[in-house]
Design goal:
Elements: H1 44-47, H2 52-77, H3 87-115, H4 124-136
Length: 137
């Protein structure tokens, strides 16, 4: 068996590398073929297994959805007095906004741990440059 970190040969049945002490059977992040907004609801342990590129894509989706939910919430809150809006609708939009905000913070926290910062904006320029670095390695 070969260590995925230092590429040194390991004795059979070793649990950690004899050179660098890295776990031999640890799962390393791999790029996913498809990222969708529902994946933001996965538990922290599963999100940590996502590749950094996939986390950035997911953060971009969550931020977009959070913005849309905020706009909807503000529209409902600012409705004219003559328009009847039930409290369930307002409560739902506020709850969704809080949920997307919390998910966004989880993703940003994982990215801070990996990159040392959270990107202010996840745009195509950032994603293209990261993808190029991944493909060059």
């Amino acid at each position: 068996m070969i260590c995925s970190y230092c590429q040194s040969e390991q004795p059979p049945y070793a649990e950690s590398c004899v050179f660098c002490n890295a776990p031999i059977n640890a799962k390393r992040p791999t790029l996913k073929e498809f990222i969708h907004i529902d994946q933001a609801e996965l538990p922290f342990e599963e999100l940590c297994l996502f590749h950094t590129y996939d986390l950035l894509l997911l953060l971009r989706l969550v931020r977009e959805e959070r913005t849309n939910t905020y706009k909807l919430m503000r529209t409902v809150q600012k409705a004219p007095e003559g328009v009847l809006i039930d409290s369930d609708t307002l409560t739902f939009t506020e709850t969704e906004y809080r949920c997307y905000t919390a998910r966004m913070r989880v993703l940003e926290g994982i990215l801070i741990d990996r990159m040392g910062y959270k990107p202010k904006r996840v745009d195509d320029k950032l994603l293209v440059s990261l993808k190029a670095k991944i493909e060059n390695d």
